[in-house]
Amino acid sequence: MKRYFFLFVFVGLISGCGTPPARHLVVECQRKTAPASGARFDCLNRASIKTEELQKQAHSEGIMRRCESFGMAKGTPNFNQCVFQQNQIEIQNKAAAQSLRMQQEQHEMQQMQQAIKMLSPPIPANPVITCTRFPGSFTTTCQ
Fold first, then answer.
1. Farthest CA pair distance, the chain
2. Could you tell me if 89 and 61 lie in one domain?
3. Which structural domain, as residue segments, surrounds residue 60?
């Protein structure tokens, strides 16, 4: 399990999925720890947690900047309401996107099932089986 997590964190962060500070943290882990060691796993795990915290912080700051761009002043009830509404909108957008992805996956699954049915030979409802018994032996052949 540790190897898979290590691979996920390593590939995800190095390939550019992470933020620039995350890449710095991974490079720091690589420099300070032995390859495929428990210490490297722990370091990468901490880097992953730190990256997630940085992403959440950047996300929150982005929402606050958006509300400020609407003319709201920090600390006012209108600003707090704006931040709340922006969070709600993002939650709804994520839910809608997830629902759309699920519908697309279901559609693709149905298309694959139809393709499989078209490629498979039809099975007759009442197959005709003819058996021949050879006299003098205990052999029967069916077709």
1. 102
2. no
3. 1-69
